[in-house]
Design a protein that fits this description.
It contains 17 helices and 2 strands. Helix 2 packs across helix 10, helix 5 runs antiparallel to helix 6 and helix 11 crosses helix 12. A two-stranded antiparallel sheet has the order 1-2.
Length: 500
């Protein structure tokens, strides 16, 4: 309950804003055992925010890419982490942003915010699957596939991730943890290889000795949207907030995960620039693999690449079980059909995962079968790269809307819910205000940047890019809006006709 006072003339009026607890708050605690500690939450965080291929693609901006990683980290990642930590400590509930927005703005906006948070998850399942395929193709350059062949393998990966996500959670999470450990080893080896290369006196593929190369300019602004997008999944692990063992895991995973996300992205971009150069826009998958081989040798480079591949294989699984929690709590709270809240014998929301997997598979079929058939264009790794970039850009635009709700919630408690905030305050008021304002501005700037600059300029021009990405984002929101209205009416009908 949040209580505040308003004064009118000499008369003091008291108003109470009461938000009834959601069904999901008690249900999850009673039905799903708390299994996630600091390490688990950190690996989930890295699986959703550490885009290795994005760090390679960003190298197209040259040395200024390193500056962008630091600027975006300070201006966006840290404010987002502060907002997430503060809200999560106040309300460590399943659903994350869905629950927080309900506490602040009520039913309607919580539903809209959760949808804007869920839709990018579906797109990212497709994008993560295409990343796996692109990386496998880079390991064997002679293996070129037509779009329909890629589509079949993408569907296998998507369906496989959905099946794995419904297994025993503790076992799945152990595999995720191990895969993240392997990726950390691979990134460290790559960083050491690039430093050893320079220590031997060999020349870097890109010069670093001119300060002008480090500066931000209109010529490299296109990198900004891509990098901010990479940092947008900060609040995703808290969608499993009701399954966390201890509260300190909330702040710890944000600290350790953010440090490694920034450091890892810097290491990969730096190593690619040193060993390969900035000409990565044509095929970032091959650029990454070539960087490993050049820095570590063919054998060690292949082993390190396999480590990275193991990490990429668990990413769609993590997206699947993390974003299915939004559907689950929506079903529990009767916002969408209650069928989506059902748990299997492993206490996993299998119905939500199955539904989400089917949606992702349908969209992937449209992308890899229908669109190539209609356009009769795009083959091999080029099609995979274009698809990967477009789906990520569309996810950026919708995800940005969800992220804006994160800061809106923080604004609410800084203004109208100060008493509730004071009970769980983690940061001084000026820090919270600066985070809310700065994060909002950077988020809006990223949206404008994503619309304005193509992430694959050699394949799609800026004039085509904004139309394609905007159309896909708008279509997704429209379909989701219609589907959500239908789902909500179904949930209401179920509630009315529920036997007493």
């Amino acid at each position: 309950m949040i209580t505040y006072k308003e004064s009118t003339g000499n008369e003091e009026l008291k108003a109470k804003k009461t938000t009834a607890p959601l069904r999901s708050e008690d249900y999850v605690i009673q039905s799903m055992p708390p299994l996630l500690g600091t390490i688990d939450m950190t690996t989930i965080y890295l699986a959703t925010i550490f885009f290795i291929v994005n760090a390679t693609t960003a190298a197209a901006g040259g040395v200024s890419t390193l500056t962008y990683w630091l600027v975006a980290g300070v201006a966006f990642l840290i404010p987002t982490g502060i907002a997430t930590a503060q809200l999560a400590v106040m309300f460590p509930r399943e659903g994350g942003l869905y629950n927080w927005t309900y506490k602040s703005f009520g039913n309607f906006w919580s539903f809209f915010a959760s949808f804007c948070s869920w839709l990018p998850g579906v797109l990212m399942i497709i994008s993560a699957s295409s990343t796996i395929l692109g990386f496998i193709q880079a390991l064997n350059k002679g293996w070129q596939l037509a779009p329909w062949e890629q589509g079949i393998l993408i569907l296998v990966i998507i369906l496989g991730s959905g099946f794995i996500a419904t297994r025993r959670f503790r076992r799945i999470q152990n595999v995720v943890n191990f895969a993240v450990y392997l990726s950390i080893i691979g990134v460290i080896l790559l960083g050491l290889a690039s430093l050893f290369w320079l220590w031997q006196g060999k020349i870097a593929a890109v010069p670093f000795n001119n300060i002008n190369y480090w500066m931000l300019s209109p010529n490299n602004f296109s990198i900004f949207g891509l990098i901010v997008f990479t940092y947008m999944g900060v609040a995703v692990p808290m969608q499993l907030g009701g399954e966390v063992i201890e509260k300190r895991a909330i702040t710890r995973h944000l600290i350790w995960g953010s440090l490694f996300a920034i450091a890892g992205s810097l290491i990969i971009s730096f190593s690619v620039l040193v060993l390969f150069g900035s000409n990565v826009s044509d095929d970032p998958f091959t650029a990454l693999f070539s960087t490993f081989n050049k820095g570590l040798g063919s054998i060690a480079g292949t082993v390190a690449s396999v480590f990275i591949l193991c990490f990429l294989l668990v990413v769609p699984v993590v997206y699947n079980y993390a974003f299915a929690r939004i559907l689950m709590v929506g079903g529990i709270d009767h916002r969408i059909p209650t069928r989506l809240s059902h748990l299997n014998k492993n206490r996993i929301p299998s119905s939500a995962i199955t539904f989400q997997t089917v949606i992702a598979a349908f969209l992937a079929a449209m992308i890899y079968f229908v669109i190539p058939f209609l356009s009769n264009n795009g083959t091999g790794t080029i099609f995979a790269q274009v698809t990967h970039s477009i789906t990520q850009a569309a996810a950026t635009l919708v995800w940005a809307m969800a992220t804006l709700f994160l800061f809106a919630n923080l604004f609410f408690y800084l203004t109208r819910g100060r008493k509730q905030l004071e009970k769980h305050r983690l940061f001084p008021g000026p820090v919270l205000w600066l985070s809310a304002i700065g994060g909002t501005v950077v988020c809006l700037a990223a949206v404008v940047n994503t619309f304005s600059y193509s992430w694959v300029p050699d394949m799609i021009s800026n004039s085509q890019w904004w139309f394609i990405v905007g159309a896909i984002s708008l279509l997704g929101l429209m379909i989701g809006g219609v589907a959500s209205m239908f789902a909500n009416s179904q949930a209401v009908w179920q509630e009315i006709n529920k036997p007493t």
